[in-house]
Amino acid sequence: MSEDTTVQRLAFWSIFIGMTVLALKYGAYYVTGSVALYSDALESIVNVVAALAAWWAIRVSYKPADRNHPYGHHKAEYFSAVLEGVLIVVAALLILREVWLAWETPKTLDQPWLGLAINGGATVINAFWASLLINRGRKHRSPAMQADGKHIMTDVVTSVGVFAGLVGAVVTGWTFLDPLLAVMVALNILWQGWNVIGNSVQGLMDVGVDTEETMRIRDVISANAGGALEVHDLKTRIAGRMTFIEFHLVVEANMSVGDAHIICDRIENALMQQIPDASVVIHVEPEDEAKLPLGTVAVPFA
Predict the structure, then answer these.
(1) 1.10.3720.10, 3.60.15.10, 3.50.50.60, 1.20.1510.10: which CATH number matches 3-204?
(2) What's this model's pTM, rounded to 2 decimal places?
(3) Architecture of domain 211-289
(4) Residue 236 carries which DSSP code?
(5) CA–CA distance from 255 to each of 133, 288, 290 (Å)?
(6) Residues 87-99: pLDDT tens digits?
(7) pLDDT tens-digit map of 113-133
(8) Contact between 288 and 253 (Cβ < 8 Å)
(9) Which is the most buried residue in 81, 112, 159, 227, by most CB within 10 A?
């Protein structure tokens, strides 16, 4: 099965998983009347909408480059992640509204153990699916899938906290714990929403690869640049699963175009083997364009 088919299938199944979990969590709220469980269910509504957006964005991102988008459609996934972050913030505000109403009129929970059992089953499903999405999202370099998985994992963490807190509320009879837990859920997902938006905006702003990845790229170039004099002005940017790499390659002025092309091909092939979905642009220059004294280092970087 091809990579794009795998990613799109996972995104499609996320919609049904989200709807199943939503139904279970709403059922837990329905039988208990707990505002904390209501907040948990409300976040699952966001999960379903986010899954739909991620599915659409991933499909668009795998479209081939065309006349209007010569660099492809990879950044579409970032729009999905930004939307998910905004929806998380909206859900948090709605939860805080319900907390205010519940605080004014606290009540004893109905059938708490049944509701907690239903919510616990939904949490187990979410934990499994979130782990799968995060792992596959990293493997296939999909920002939308990773954002979706991290959001669902946040839902898992908050659900565990709600479960533990409501057990305490039922045992002690402290009804104020219910809306208090909902406040904690709202604040937590606000923080996660902010992180999702921030990471997505960085992608839209053409953020470069991290330091470790930059050093790996440099090592690959150095190991395969035999015959060149210098490499400088290395630049990178990330767009979805794509990594764009650009640099200048200095060669002897009398080197033929064919020989310089062989060096470029060797470097490009090595980079694409090490970094999936890499796009490499190499600008060849004569030796008088070198930025460091020639002969000091085999392939120096500037």
Answers:
(1) 1.20.1510.10
(2) 0.57
(3) 2-Layer Sandwich (3.30)
(4) E
(5) 49, 13, 15
(6) 777 777 777 766 6
(7) 888 888 888 889 988 988 888
(8) yes
(9) 81
